[in-house]
């Protein structure tokens, strides 16, 4: 029996190394080195240091880095000649993350639609804009316009304010200086009701919903979002429309998306905060699935 088994083993096909796998491993090793804390702290590494860490010839490392740079996977600082991970690599990772995020969000968006009977969106931040990644439509479907892929000025929306609500004040200030506006902006859909008179702003403050017209009022809104766990808008973005948004956190505890519900004020205006609290609970359950700390 032992002899037969040995003979069978000797006749079994041997594993064949994958073609070019060694070269791929070496390229991945370089990317790992450029993603190391040392590279991040130094703002990039030179060819000699990468070669030293990889234990390989500097000429080969130089040629490999040039090829990776050609495809945007690494980038070279023209002043220092140092290399670091390229934006194309981050773009690929972001697209992969967002596609997984969209798939994972479906049952949570549907729960919101079932509970509120209103259209629900999954939104992310893009610079100064909010981008809608996915939507679940209600049976009312009060808009003819589909919002997937549509971007909107973030500071004017509940989802945009939620998406920056975990930022430090200095970061929020820089972002607002770059993307905020002190004057009302006209929506391509309908005129906005960004009334800036003192009486209106005071009335909204008394209701606990500050009207965002400048950086100071944005700070107050962010503080309110942190306390409540959700944001609201009442005709600030579009006439006759109200909305609520709640943050979705990743495994690091960072806000990566927002669940948003928008509806005509005639339908949701009287229970706006109830919808906001529900969005916060559903978003928290979604965050837990993504590994967010409790």
Describe this structure in words.
The protein is of the alpha+beta class and 294 residues long. It folds into two domains: 17-85, Winged helix-like DNA-binding domain superfamily/Winged helix DNA-binding domain (Arc Repressor Mutant, subunit A), CATH 1.10.10.10; 94-289, Beta-Lactamase (2-Layer Sandwich), CATH 3.30.450.40. It has twelve helices and eight strands. The strands form two sheets. A six-stranded antiparallel beta sheet has the order 5-4-3-8-7-6. The protein has a two-stranded antiparallel sheet with strand order 1-2. The longest helix is centred in the middle third of the chain and has 30 residues, at 87-116.
Which short descriptors sum up this protein?
Arc Repressor Mutant, subunit A, Beta-Lactamase, six-stranded antiparallel β-sheet, two-stranded antiparallel ribbon, 49% helix, 16% strand
